[in-house]
Design brief:
single chain, alpha+beta, 15% strand
């Protein structure tokens, strides 16, 4: 019983968990629709408290440091040799490759002149560069790289130091910046426009307004895009670009939409918990039913054992009575005539009692067999005489129509008499007189009809021969018809019912 209660509690817990998940999902959806901006702000705050930023970007510093258009314009990072005279660009390229014929360089373009100074340095014609070389325009080499980037790749160790690179980072092209080099031109414009949330293929930028004593600025905290995606997979909403419908809240070029993947996972978890709860509850009920059946079988065996013991105990005094009657039978002629008739009745009833005890014993011993009633055929010289003796005790209440041609029989007289008595008693109790018992042969089958003038609502024997079913005027246990039907079938016969008039018919194979 303890295991049953434990399993029931487990099933209730599982079903309750499924209900809580369903309710929480409903509340999340409801709150998201009503308070979308607040809910999304909470999601972003939860992410920032769970993950540490990889770096920071200050938009105001970008504006100040990248004031030169050429360091912001994404097109300047591409080679732009077409902007210069062909002769000059060709001679500069030749000198950069061979470090020869410097005297033939007669460059008039200011941008190319700065490039010439750089290549004179790389060709060791110059020992040092002008002090303000990297801080003055132009900042971009005609090849599309900034002079800072070219210097950082140069073999000269002074330019490869991190301190030098950091101090000159502002003079490199914005797309060369190691911190913000992951930004494409569109992301860069988003920073300069002050967008609150920016997604790139590898990173996530979340803005924060910072008020300083000089002027307010916006700092972007940079996070891993992978961490962001993993975090959003567990939330009720996610971000999507270029969405026109189903947008809960738009943030710059991003659209917040419901997370269908998360909903599918939650639905699966909900279904799993609900199914587990139902299966646990169903399994518990099945186990309880099985246990109850086992208990009932044990109880039935115990009752059978008790009945066997009682039958055995009843059999002892009944046998003693029978032996005493046998002693008195030898002095039967000495008894008065009135006493002789009473003695014969006692002998007859005692014989029936012994027969009932023996039958009960057989039934209890063979309780689990398919045919637990064992019949004992007895030779009967006259079938008519046997049935007339049974009907005679009912007097004028029952009429008897014997076989037209009497014959001997070989059958279990006790059970045949029991069935006939039950049917006659039913007819007298629930039918209308007169009650007629008639014997006949149909082919090789003996037919015993018990007929009265009563009216039954039932149309078949199955409606009446249901165990423990009582009619409206019944005063017994209602087991008579059940007993008759079972015994008749066990003897190889059948019990049938016909109406108008009510007739019960027992049909047996040739009993001769």
């Amino acid at each position: 019983m303890k295991a049953f209660y434990t399993a029931t509690i487990l099933a209730v817990v599982l079903l309750g968990s499924a209900g809580v998940l369903f309710w929480n999902d409903y509340l999340d959806s409801r709150n998201l629709e009503v308070h979308s901006q607040q809910a999304i702000s909470q999601i972003k705050s939860k992410f920032e408290s769970s993950y540490s930023p990889l770096s920071k970007i200050n938009s105001e510093e970008i504006r100040q440091q990248k004031a030169a258009a050429e360091l912001i314009d994404p097109t300047t990072i591409l080679p732009h040799t077409e902007k210069y005279p062909r002769r000059e660009i060709v001679s500069l390229y030749h000198y950069a490759e061979t470090c020869k014929n410097r005297g033939s360089l007669h460059l008039q373009n200011r941008n190319l002149q700065k490039a010439q100074v750089w290549h004179e340095y790389t060709c060791n014609y110059r020992k040092t560069l002008p002090e303000a070389f990297f801080r003055t325009q132009p900042f971009m080499h005609p090849s599309g790289e900034s002079f800072v980037t070219l210097a950082a790749r140069h073999k000269d160790s002074q330019f490869s130091k991190s301190s030098w690179i950091v101090s000159h980072l502002r003079y490199a092209h914005i797309l060369e910046n190691s911190l913000i080099g992951f930004l494409d031109p569109r992301n860069l414009r988003s920073i300069l426009n002050g967008d609150t949330l920016i997604e790139t293929p590898s990173s996530l930028l979340i803005s924060h307004k910072i008020d300083t004593s000089l002027s307010p600025s916006t700092t972007y905290f940079v996070y891993s895009r992978r961490s962001w995606d993993e975090f959003l997979n567990k939330q009720s909403v996610r971000t999507s670009e270029n969405m026109t419908t189903g947008c809960i809240l738009r943030e710059a070029n991003l659209c917040w939409v419901k997370n269908n993947k998360r909903s599918a996972r939650e639905n699966f978890r909900l279904a799993l918990l609900f199914s587990a709860g139902l299966l646990t509850l169903a399994g518990t009920l099945v186990v309880q039913i099985i246990r109850r059946n086992i208990f009932q079988r044990r109880a039935s065996k115990q009752r059978t054992f008790v009945l066997q013991m009682l039958t055995h105990e009843i059999r002892t005094p009944a046998t003693a009575v029978q032996l005493s009657l046998e002693t008195l039978r030898s002095e039967f002629d000495k008894l008065p005539s009135n006493s002789q008739e009473a003695f014969l009745r006692i002998c007859d009833q005692t014989q029936k009692l012994i027969r009932v005890i023996e039958a009960s014993k057989q039934y209890l011993i063979n309780d689990n067999s398919s045919n637990s009633v064992k019949f004992k055929a007895q030779s009967t010289p006259s079938i008519n005489f046997f049935f007339e003796a049974i009907v005679e005790k009912y007097g004028d209440q029952v009429n008897m129509q014997p076989l037209h041609q009497d014959r001997p029989g070989n059958f279990d007289r006790y059970w045949i008499e029991l069935c006939l008595n039950n049917l006659i008693d039913n007819a007298l109790a629930h039918g209308r007189p007169p009650v007629n018992v008639s014997l006949s042969y149909t082919g090789k089958r003996l037919v015993i009809d018990i007929q009265d003038n009563g009216v039954l609502k039932a149309k078949s024997i199955e409606e009446l021969a249901v165990q423990f079913k009582r009619g409206q005027t019944s005063h017994g246990l209602g087991l008579g018809l059940v007993l008759v039907q079972k015994i008749t079938r066990a003897m190889g016969g059948e019990l049938t019912l016909t109406c108008a008039p009510t007739t019960f018919s027992m049909k047996f194979k040739d009993l001769s």
